[in-house]
Specification:
Layout: E1 15-29, E2 45-53, E3 57-59, E4 65-73, E5 83-94, E6 100-109, E7 114-120, E8 130-138, E9 141-151
Parallel strand pairs: 3-9
Antiparallel strand pairs: 1-2, 1-4, 4-7, 5-6, 5-8, 8-9
Domain DUF3859: 20-150
Pfam families: DUF3859 (PF12975)
InterPro entries: DUF3859
């Protein structure tokens, strides 16, 4: 007796859609570095997050936060993941000690189907103009991507959002 097997369509994992993006207000909280983090400075969580300007044109200022929020939609037989992986591709950043990187990686938790991926300019050396890209992945598969254009403030404009928000 011969068995014939037929391959069915490939089953895709959870999908994601970007539901908001731009400049964000909130409070950075001290947190322990998580496994999977690769950054020049420890990545910190954010609380009481709210978008204050929807734009992909970001003016770099100290304490300015920007990012994306994605909604994950599980597709059977997959369940909602607890976290996703985030990669932020940016111009070369150079710390005062000479360490450089063009990429920041960190995990982001999924809460009620939503996950926020963002970046905060906490040091002058992080405020690099040019293209920045946020990529959200799940088990190695890209599920969302957003490009931003970061610029420096014009002469005479505020160079800090610290204390605002």
């Amino acid at each position: 007796m011969a068995l014939i097997t037929m391959a069915g369509p490939a089953v895709a994992g959870p999908k994601a859609e970007i539901v908001d993006f731009g400049v964000v207000a909130g409070r950075l909280v001290d947190s322990q570095p998580e496994a999977g983090q690769r950054a020049l400075e420890p990545v910190r969580a954010m609380q009481k997050l709210r978008y204050i300007e929807r734009s992909d044109q970001i003016e770099a200022r100290l304490c300015r936060n920007f990012g994306i929020t994605v909604r994950l939609v599980p597709t059977p037989p997959f369940r909602m993941p607890d976290r996703v992986e985030v990669r932020v591709l940016h111009p070369d950043l150079t710390r005062p000690d000479g360490r450089q990187s063009a990429e920041t990686r960190f995990p982001s938790y999924v809460v009620d189907g939503l996950s926020h991926a963002g970046f905060t300019f906490e040091h002058d050396w992080e405020m690099a103009p040019g293209p920045w890209t946020m990529i959200v992945s799940l088990r190695g598969d890209e599920i969302a991507r957003k490009d931003f254009s970061v610029t420096l403030p014009p002469p005479g404009a505020p160079k800090s959002d610290c204390g605002i928000g």
